Here is the input.
Amino acid sequence: MNSAKKSFEQIISFKQADISGESPQQRLLRYCSEVLGAVERLHVDFKEKHDRRNGKLADDDKKNLAKAVSGFANSSGGILIWGIEDETLTPKPISEVEKFVQSLLELAPYSTDPIVQGIDGDWVGSDENGGFGVVFIPESLLPPHRVILNSDKIKNHYYIRSGNSFAIATHTQLEDMFGRRPRPNLSLSTRVVFYSHQGENHLVNVIVSIENRGRGTAKSPFLAIKIRPPYKINHFGIDGNGGFGLKEIASSSDWNEKKYGASANAVIHPGVVHDVTLVRVPINVKGSPQDTPDLVMDYRIVAEGTQIIEEQRIVQSSELWAVLE
Here is the structure.
């Protein structure tokens, strides 16, 4: 299940009763501010309704929907969250929100050519009257999708998701969507190497990399990785001088999670294993593999035009000990 679909289902779950005592609006806003970070904005867009006093679709609402249907379907899918101001995440709940979401879902199939299959929507109640609309748009298996909404400014354009906005696709991007250009296939790669010995304690390095097994170049690669205790990322980097394979991104999230990449200048070519970061593991050689915890890593990988991969990698203690033999 990709990131956009997970986020959609998570948000819709906020409609249910919660033992924490938070209201659906409080849970939604906290999720938006704490979870939907910079990379996830590739798959999330916040919109305010033109006139939130009713559930009718204004022209601006229709244009925003059509661009999103085209842009998300032509990229890696995404969700539209209606009723939240984009930059500040200030709530702007919509009256008649159920009617509004229903109108969006009725218009969506007629906003692009070809039709995007699998669009879904729902809403979450606010602390006041009304609520917040949520529309899920999947990545299409039949791109590209052209806007056919009767609007001079956007009609007949093909959109893609770029950063936190929608942009008109270039000729090269259209070629890629038509299948004339190969696509990257990213995965997490690890290798264990001996580092040094300090008496009874030996140090082992686990180098964490992004591998491109596809035939297309991965542009703007990104890695978010969280190391389970007792281990952590080596703050001296992979070169011993604080350098990492991709630029480290400042984050206010869990201190044990690190984020790297998201630079337009960074690429990973086909067949390349690109080293990003390093975990240093101390091993007491008087013990045994059973005494050494496994290295557990939760991670997300994404690049321009690809779906987010969210998985877990475990380097077993036996692998850590193997390099000491």
The chain has two domains: 3-177, 186-322. The chain has six helices and 18 strands.
